[in-house]
Amino acid sequence: MNLLIFGATGRTGKIVVRKALEQGHHVTVYVRDPSKLEQGPEALTIIQGELMEQDKIEKAVQGQDVVISLLAPHGRIPGKPITKAITRTLRGMEKHDVQRIITVGTPSITEKQDAFDAKYKLIKTGERAFTKEQTDDVIDAAEAVRQSDRDWTIVRVPFLTNKPGNNMVKAGFLGDGNFRTKLSREDLAMFILAQLDNDTYSRQAPLLTQSSEKKITS
Question: N or C: less crowded end of the chain, CB within 10 Å?
């Protein structure tokens, strides 16, 4: 598949890029600073651009099968930059008839299938208390995706770790059993790539955490 990845220079992004290339995908990354990425094989295309450049984003989107956004707010940047970047990307997808988009967000994004979970209630309260501006940006970005007519999946994640993946995750909705509060970046990357042409969570926002029960399947 032809994949366009935003947020490719982050810790999770680099893993997604590496594993996508290992799986034989053609990967295009849209980055502000290409020096943060090593030059890869011919299957890797690096496009330098800013998140406010609509024309460049549209050109990057053209010809892709799936868009993956790993964008996350860093620091207190006003103006909801992630929401704006996602909105520009969705415009490009509509223009070039690209249907599938997979994004990553936090548990503060609500999902209608969720039930009450005391542990995650505390996590959401903490996000609101300490990172309200960034949390609002993540929530609004998810809402922009939801309101689109694309084939979307929003993967909600807890605290990410740099531990090696064990290929075991739990995906679903709060109230559906016990969800842990941590997730390996490597397992997140594998789950995202397993959703490229999988409609199990089409137009849904599952929560993904580490598990000792279920293996990731493509």
Answer: C
Q: In angstroms, rounded to a whole number, what is the distance separating the alpha carbons of residues 76 and 163?
A: 28
pLDDT at 218 over 60: no
In this predicted structure, the answer to whether residue 46 has a pLDDT above a threshold of 60 is yes
- Position 137, amino acid: D
CB 109 within 8 A of CB 154: yes
Banded pLDDT at 214 (limits 50, 70, 90):
low
Decide: pTM greater than 0.90: yes
d(CA 19, CA 138): 25
